[in-house]
Amino acid sequence: MPLTTILVEDSKTIRDNLIPAMGELADIVVVAVAETAAEALAAMEEYSSYWDLAVVDLFLKEGSGLTVLRACQSRSPHQRVVVLTNYPTPQMRRRCLDLGADAVFDKSGELEAFFDYCNATPRAG
Q1: CA–CA gap between residue 91 and residue 93 (Å, rounded)
Q2: pLDDT band at residue 61, thresholds of 50, 70 and 90?
Q3: CATH code where residue 37 lies
Q4: Is residue 7 part of a domain?
Q5: Is 125 contained in some domain?
Q6: What angle do CA 118, 58, 34 make, to 5 degrees?
Q7: Which of 38, 14, 92 is closest to 30 using CA atoms?
Q8: Helix, strand, or coil here: 43?
Q9: Shortest CA distance to 55 belongs to which of 42, 38, 72?
Q10: What's CA 92's distance to the chain center, in Å?
Q11: How far is CA 21 from CA 26, 48, 50, 96, 122, in A?
């Protein structure tokens, strides 16, 4: 069963490359894409009963991925939130984890670990 996912990423180029890879390498179906924190919160509300994974970038067109993480603190136990960023400093990793992220991955060097994490994530199904 596919992993139902919300992708919070403002770069069209990254989305255009990441979405097919997510489907192929981790059996992920992206049900919503958000470019801003507000769009992410709306998508999470709309799909609240059945998303399994939210993949969140930190720097968005408007707002911050940190806002999205704060909003996810009351998510269902089966729902996972991971940060996929180009800014994975130790301080930022700690801040994301403190805000409830389940994992933090570097877009430029940890995609294999990201896909491994996705493949190990339980599906609600």
Answers
A1: 5
A2: very high
A3: 3.40.50.2300
A4: yes
A5: no
A6: 75
A7: 14
A8: helix
A9: 72
A10: 15
A11: 8, 24, 22, 24, 19
Position 124 scores a pLDDT of 67
- Model confidence band, residue 49 (pLDDT cutoffs 50, 70, 90): confident
Is-contact 44 54, C-beta < 8 A?
A: yes
* Of 71 and 124, more confident: 71
89 domain residue, yes or no: yes
Q: Tell me: pLDDT of 22 over 80.
A: yes
What is the span of the domain harbouring residue 42?
Answer: 3-120
- Count of domains in the chain? 1
Domain assignment present for 64: yes
Give per-residue pLDDT as tens, 69-94: 999 998 999 999 999 999 999 999 99
Question: What are the distances in angstroms from CA 24 to CA 3, 6, 113?
Answer: 12, 16, 15
How is residue 33 written in tokens?
Answer: 């894409």
